[in-house]
Amino acid sequence: MKYKVKISNLSFDIEFESVEDKPSRPEKPEPPVIEPPIIPEIPDRTILNLDEILTGEEGSIYRLPESMNNKWVTVRCSGNIKPTIRGIIGENTFLQFESWDKAPTQLIDLEGVNDFFIRGIQFVCPPDRPIRTACPDKEVFGWKRETVTQGKFAWIDAPEVLDKDLMTYGLCRFGYSSDTNSDIYLIGKGLNHNGYNFTQIKNPYEGNLFLCLQDIRQHNPIIRGPQSHYYTPTDFQIKISVEKGVAKIISENTFDQILTWAGYNNGNQRSILHFDRFVYDISEEQLIDNKTLRLDMNELQAGDVIDKGRVTRKQVDFTRQTNWSYEIEDSPEDLSRTFPEGTYYAYIIYKGNAGFSNGHVNESTPFGHPEVLLSQGYGWSWYNESFSGYIENFQGSGYFRNSGGGKTKGLTIRNSSFGKNPPTATTDHDMPQECADFIDLVESL
Questions:
Q1: Cα distance between residue 325 and residue 317, in whole Å
Q2: Which of 83, 15, 71, 76 is nearest to 50 (CA)?
Q3: How many CB atoms lie within 10 A of CB 15?
Q4: Residue 443 carries which DSSP code?
Q5: Rounded distance, CA 90 to CA 122, Å?
Q6: How confident is the prediction along the chain (445 residues), in pLDDT tens digits per residue?
Q7: In this structure, what are the phi and psi dihedrals at residue 101, rounded to the nearest 5 degrees?
C-alpha cells in the first residue's frame, strides 16, 4: 500500500492517506514563497530595506535574491517591526547596518505572532563602536509581557563573522512567558554570536516559555577578571599625573573610554578614577577635557581625619542620595587630609549596578583590588531568569547571569560548555517535539 505525506502550511498537520484506497482530493495551497524577479547582479553593498520585507504579503516566505548568497549587504531597519510574513531565508548572507545611530536595538517585535523564522542570515553591527564599555546591546527578537501567548520562533544558521571586533545581534532581547496553558518556543540552531546578552528570558508565570538551543557558538570572553568582557570592558588601566588637584592622563587613553549612553555617573552607573588607595568620581562637571579631570577635593578618602573622626571606610552610596557613604570612627588624632601629587598608574572604571563588592575601600585596600574594579552591569553572555528548555552543543564564554526569579518545567543540557556561572540542568529529556518538528520544517524550505 502506498501513502503520501502532506505538510499543511507551517502548522505541521500531517495526514496519511492511502493513495490506492481513497480518491484524490485537491491539495491545500502552500504559503507562497516570494521569489524576486531576475535582476542584474547586486553589488556587495546594496542597501536592503528590512521593513519592507518583514511587512510583505501576509503569510508568505521571503527568499533573498541568489545574488546575495555568501555576500555582505548593507541593511536598514527602523526596529521593532511586527512581521506579517512567516519567514525570511538567505544563504550565508551577512546583513550589516551602516552606522550605530541606524542600528536598532531590537529588529522584530513578535507581538501577536504565532510562528516566525529566519534562516541563513547573520545580522552584523557596524564597525567602530562609539561606546567601548556598556555598549548598547542588540537583539533580533523580543516581545512585551502578555503580547505573546503561544508560538514558535526560530533563527537558524547564522554564519560566523571571523572579525571578532564586529559584534552581531543576539537571539532575543526581552522574551516573556504567558499566563496561559499554551507553550512558547524560542529556538536557535547553528548560530554564531559575537557579543553579549544572547538572550534575556523573563519567566514570571508557569514556565511555558521554552528556550531550545542547538549548535551555538558565542564569543564573549572575559579579558580580565572578574567580569571585564571583550565587547564591554568595564575598566582601563592608564597613567596619570596629578598636580594641584587636577589629574591628567599621560598614557594613550581618554576618559571617554568609559562613557556610557547615559553619560558619566548617572542613574545606577558610576564612573570612577582609582589610583593608589584613592577613588574619585568622574563627572561632566569635573571634566576639563577628555584627558583632564578636576578632582573633587571635597571627597573624603579612607585615612582622612576630620572633625568627626577618622574615615575608615568609603563605599558607593547605594541609595544614590549622595555619591559616597563613609564610616567614621572617633579618633584623638589631629585633623589631616591627604591630597595626592605625582605620577600614578590608575584605572578608569565603569560600575553598573554595583558598589565595592567587599563592602568598602579602606586604607589597606591595594591598588587594583578586584572588588574595586568589579562591575556587575553589562557584559554578561546572557541574562535569564529560570527557564524551561533544551540546550545541546552550546559553546560559550563569559559570565552567564542567571537570575533567581522565574519558573521552569525543567532544563536539559547536553554536550555544552559555558564560562562563569553556568546554568544548572534539572532534567534529561529530548528536545521538545514541537521544536524539532519546526526546525525540520524550516530546514526543508
A1: 5
A2: 76
A3: 11
A4: H
A5: 9
A6: 444 444 444 444 444 444 344 444 445 445 555 554 433 444 455 789 999 999 999 999 999 999 999 999 999 999 999 999 999 999 999 999 999 999 999 999 999 999 999 999 999 999 988 777 777 789 999 999 999 999 999 999 999 999 999 999 999 999 999 999 999 999 999 999 999 999 999 988 889 999 999 999 999 999 877 778 899 888 899 999 999 999 999 999 999 999 887 788 887 788 999 999 899 999 999 999 999 999 998 999 999 999 999 999 998 887 767 788 899 999 888 899 989 999 999 999 988 776 776 668 888 999 998 888 887 667 899 999 999 999 999 999 999 998 878 889 999 999 999 999 999 999 999 999 999 999 999 999 9
A7: -75, -10
Number of neighbouring beta carbons within 10 Å of residue 56? 16
pTM: 0.82
**Other CB atoms closer than 10 Å to residue 158's CB: what's the count?**
29
Report which DSSP code applies to 66. G
Domain ranges for the chain: 41-224+380-444, 235-373
Report the 10 Å Cβ neighbour count for 288. 12
Nearest 5°: the CA angle 120, 125, 131 is 160
- Rg of the chain (C-alpha set): 27
Query: Phi first, then psi: what are they for 440, rounded to 5°?
Result: -60, -45
Q: Are strands 151-158 and 184-194 parallel, antiparallel or unpaired?
A: parallel
SS (H, E, C) 392-413: EEEECCCEEEECCCCCCCCEEE
State the Cα–Cα distance between residues 15 and 21, nearest whole angstrom: 14
**Distance in angstroms (rounded) separating the CA atoms of residues 190 and 195:** 16
The position carrying cell 589631629 is 334
H or E stretch at 51: helix 50-54
Contact 347, 330 (CB under 8 A): no
Burial of 389 (0-12, 13-18, 19+ CB in 10 A): buried
The three-point CA angle 133-137-143 to 5° equals 155
Q: What are the grid coordinates assigned to 267, written together?
A: 542613574
Residue 319: exposure state from Cβ atoms within 10 A (0-12, 13-18, ≥19): exposed
